[in-house]
Every structure is written in C-alpha cells, then in structure tokens.
Amino acid sequence: MKRVIKSFAFAFSGLKDSLVHEKNFQIQYVIALLVAGAGIYFSLSATEWMIILICFAVVLSFEIINSAIEKLCDLVCPEINPVIRKVKDMCAGSVLFSAIISFIIGCIIFLPKIKWMFFR
After folding, report:
1. Are 36 and 60 in contact (CB under 8 A)?
2. How many CB atoms are located within 10 Å of the residue 77 CB?
3. Residue 100 and residue 79: Cα distance in Å, rounded?
4. Is 25 exposed, middle or buried (0-12, 13-18, 19+ CB in 10 A)?
C-alpha cells in the first residue's frame, strides 16, 4: 500500500512540476480553465462535458509527455542532433495536432450556443 501511495505522490509531483515550470503547459491549462468557464456559462450537457474533459486530458497529457521527452533528449544528447530534433518536432506535432482537433471540437460544441446567444 505504501508503494501505491508513493506512486500517486510522484505522479502529483509531476503534475505540479508541469504546472509550475512548463510554460506551454501553463498556457494549455489556462485555456482549459477558460473553456471550462464557458462550459459552465453555457450549461453544457453531460455528453458535451465528457467530450470537453477528454480533450483537456489529451492535450494536457501530450504536453506533459512532450516536455518529458524534450528533457530526456536534452539530457541524453545536449548538442544539436538531427535525430533528436526530429523526435522533439514529432512530439510537439502531437501536441499541436491534439490542440487543433480539440479546437475544432470546441467550435462544434460552442459556436451554436454563441450563435443562439446573439441571434435569438
């Protein structure tokens, strides 16, 4: 049981470290908070909330993984290396792709509500 508790403590430490030290994670986190605020304002359905929360989880998780892989690459190979650069670019691409898809999903969910608000 102590090992399980320690594992959770390490995981929460990683989340805290990402929130405190990773600029891109902070930006994505603030965006998630703003979207959550919009979700409360527009009274999203349970299904819409589930979709939005999955988007949050995917984008923020990819951001953490991207940061971790970048740090590992810098540790393993501090000098400029074309393979390391490609790895970092691919990781950043996964974050970008998930953010773009999440943005599209957000538009699908929120634009009709915004349109209705202005054009009732």
Report:
1. no
2. 13
3. 31
4. buried
Going from the C-alpha of 112 to that of each of 37, 48, 88, 107, the distances in angstroms are 17, 13, 37, 8
pLDDT digits (tens, 9 = 90+) for 69-117: 999 999 999 999 999 999 999 999 999 999 999 999 999 999 999 987 7
* Residues 6 or more apart in contact with residue 37 via CB below 8 angstroms: none
Domains of the chain: 22-118 (1.10.287.3610)
CA-CA distance, 117 to 105, in Å (whole number)? Answer: 19
- Residue 68 makes CB contacts below 8 A (sequence gap 6+) with none
Structure tokens, 30: 């603030």
Check if the beta carbon of residue 46 is closer than 8 Å to that of residue 56.
no
Report d(CA 23, CA 73) in Å as an integer. Answer: 18
Q: CA 107 to CA 51: how far, in whole Å?
A: 12
Query: pTM here?
Result: 0.91
